[in-house]
Amino acid sequence: MTKIDTSGPEQVLPTPSHTVGPFYGYALPFRGGEDIAPAGHPDTVTVHGYVHDGEGNPLPDALVELWGPDTEGRVPTADGSMRRDPASGDFLGRNGVEFTGFGRIQTDANGHWYARTLRPGARGRSAPYLSVCVFARGLLVHLFTRIYLPGDEAALAADPLLARVPAGRRDTLIAADEGHGTYRFDIRLQGEGETVFLEFQ
Amino acid sequence: MTLTQHDIDAEIAAEHAAYQKRVADGGPVEHHPRRDYAPYRSSVLRHPKQPPIAIDVTQDPELVELSSPAFGERDITGIDNDLTRQHTGEPVGERITVSGRLLDRNGRPVRGQLVEIWQANSAGRYAHQREQHDAPLDPNFTGVGRTLADDDGFYRFTTVQPGPYPWRNHVNAWRPAHIHFSVFGSAFTQRLVTQMYFPNDPLFPYDPILQSVTDDAARRRLIATYDHSLSVPEFSLGYHWDIVLDGPNATWIEEGR
Ligand SMILES: [Fe+3]
């Protein structure tokens, strides 16, 4: 059954998703997962926040992945997000020079996560954003959302996705400016202020 | 009130019947679990109540979600796909080889992308600090592996057969033996985290996580096939498991889907 017959498209049905479970913490997070921006880059932004459940409690076991373009809107093609030491097998961290665009962060015991990455540039018809994929114990299928940065109201107003989001929920996709290049972005999985999640078709 | 296996069995049966009715009434085949699948109790407060907003990727080929992070040889070490060689001694347990192909919905191989696995040891214990199961840790087994899919989409791991383990969803809840997989496609939209099971596990009907996939055929796609040609003489038993990534990618746009 699990040798997939690729002779016809009707046979190539997807592998179902499952929860990441509670015990990925020694497997998926890697050293420097939150330090995405090259060292000392002037266009570095810090994004951070909490992941909350339907009762407003923060999740100490959520995993956030970020994927975004460079400051010019170019898609990164460099590997090396999770460079390894062939001698010890440990994580080396990034090389501080190349921008891979990818980060992976586990929430801490308080349910808080942060990342330092490059301020994304615009691509296509969209306002600049970071793509976010959220995993957690209890979440049977991961959730996609986006972090838009505030400031350029004209670009945000012209964004094809934001234009379709009900006005009352639009702010869940736009980070709050805390100054000094730091932006707050909370993710609410359920209930009041529930984050807008996306489905790609 | 104590939640028993009997209670969970009844909920699983009701969800299964509800799905079959939806299909009989013309509803779509559901390849993935519903996030609000209540027999898995941890889902109750962790699923959105609002429907997701659909993005038609054919409207904008520039979406960053249509590209994916790159991983390369420096992101893995030579023994990362052999979980039996990561310590000075041999892990306890039955050695197995797990191999298969990483494919997209068109049946085409996904090349060079990262495949990560993690699992319990042969006694059913994870090397995780918060793991409460009173089974022995194995100093020679961590249970983490990584590899890159080759040019034909093949991945391969050498590991030990994981044990089943208890958890606290309800009284006497046991997870069937499984290996957790995390995979990337050519587009971030194809991201997948899932679990692979072993053939003929008697725990399948009792497990609300496996049963959260209410479509019978879809659930079977999570179960590896014993493959004698993958068994290594005098060393390991072989299991074959192909992974098909869902979600649109850039080739869908080329074909005008
Ligand atoms: Fe598990």
Q: Could you give the distance between the termini of chain B?
A: 50 Å
**Mean of residue pLDDT of chain A?**
96
**Order of helical and strand elements of chain B:** HEEEEEEEEEHHEEEH
**Roughly how many Å is the radius of gyration of chain A?**
18 Å
Largest sheet of chain A: 5 strands, mixed
Amount of beta strand of chain A: 25-35%
Distance between the termini of chain A: 26 Å
Query: What low-confidence regions of chain A span 5 or more consecutive residues with pLDDT below 50?
Result: none
Number of strands of chain A: 10
Residue share in β-strands of chain B: 15-25%
Low-confidence stretches of chain B: none
Helix content of chain A: under 10%
Which oligomeric state applies? heterodimer
**Which class of secondary structure composition applies to the elements of chain A?**
mainly beta
Task: Please render the helix and strand layout as text.
The complex is a heterodimer of chains A (201) and B (257).
Chain A: E1 44-52, E2 62-67, E3 102-106, E4 112-118, E5 129-136, E6 143-148, H1 153-158, H2 167-170, E7 176-177, E8 182-184, E9 187-188, E10 198-200
Parallel strand pairs in A: 1-8, 1-9
Antiparallel strand pairs in A: 1-4, 2-3, 2-5, 5-6, 7-8
Chain B: H1 5-24, E1 53-55, E2 95-103, E3 114-119, E4 144-148, E5 154-160, E6 165-167, E7 173-175, E8 178-183, E9 192-197, H2 208-211, H3 216-220, E10 225-226, E11 237-240, E12 243-244, H4 250-254
Parallel strand pairs in B: 2-11, 2-12
Antiparallel strand pairs in B: 2-5, 3-4, 3-8, 6-7, 8-9, 10-11
The complex binds fe (iii) ion.
Fe (iii) ion binds at residues 175, 178, 180 of chain B.
